[in-house]
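Q: Sequence in, structure out?
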Amino acid sequence: MSFTLPDLNYDYNALATAIDAQTMEIHHTKHHNTYITNLNNAIAGTDNEGKDLLDLIHNAGSISPAVRNNGGGHWNHSFFWNLMTPDSMGAPTGDLADDIKNTFGDFDNFKAQFAQAGLTRFGSGWAWLIVNAEGKLQITSTPNQDNPLMDVADVKGSPILGLDVWEHAYYLRYQNRRPDYINAWWDIVDWNKVAELYQTNK
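A: Exactly. Output:
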């Protein structure tokens, strides 16, 4: 079965306080869809055809660069879309909030460290909050379309929050001002979804 572009849970203009509708539409229908098209082409007629996306991701070190890059692009973007909402409550609560405080000192310090991971990712890539192998929260980043689930990742774990810092994610509104994009993005994070992922992977 070929991979297909997932629908969004909101309209393209729903996140306009942080990400404009044109960027959302281009990012979803062009960039994400291109990863899917290229992934389907790369696995067609190979042993990877019909495999689950997570199977490909977990074995990124033993698959072709085309499958790794485009498979990562498909997984990362599918994950990213589901972490945003026009109805963000602005900050986590409950067990997740407590763990963030215990791990990073407080929520503002966590945001600063996460933003730094995105700002210092040279070129294109992602910033992540993960639950690591010890069950602890950890901030990391990956290049290109890699992610912490891959066997090639420097820091491995289960992502519960991810931010796309490729220029195509923000350039129409923010140009080269990645810090402004990251700062605005906090206002649309779906902390309920992040908390669900935290509970699942803790």
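The helical segments are 21-43, 53-58, 65-81, 94-104, 107-119, 171-174, 178-185, 191-201.
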